[in-house]
């Protein structure tokens, strides 16, 4: 008979291992993903605000949110596709998926909802600016997180 197994199972371990059986530390709830998502939202709204200012549109906050709505839906869809609480600072492939979903779905919904066209010049500017802000934010988050 194995004497190591004959100890009473009713006595609690004085130093239980807090790690799950996978060997990884327990998941910690963090506000960073939500803060990062909020920054992404602000960056997309900022992109739309600058574009609206360049075209002298003056229908206030409601107009800004209406114009931004296709891209915000795209951002939300891309963030959900990549499960952003676990991938909020990953550039590849998660950041690329969020960027392309924000751009593609945003352009599609912009045209489908009758909020404007999608000429090549707009597509190129939107692709460039959204890549800069969405991928740039992830690169900065990753760099600051590795300090």
Automatic annotation (TrEMBL):
The chain crosses the membrane at residues 34-51, 63-84, 96-113, 119-140. InterPro entries: DUF3054. Keywords: Membrane, Transmembrane, Transmembrane helix. Residues 1-29 are annotated as: Disordered. Residues 1-12 have a biased composition (Low complexity). It comes from the Bacteria. Pfam families: DUF3054 (PF11255). This is Uncharacterized protein YggT (Ycf19 family).
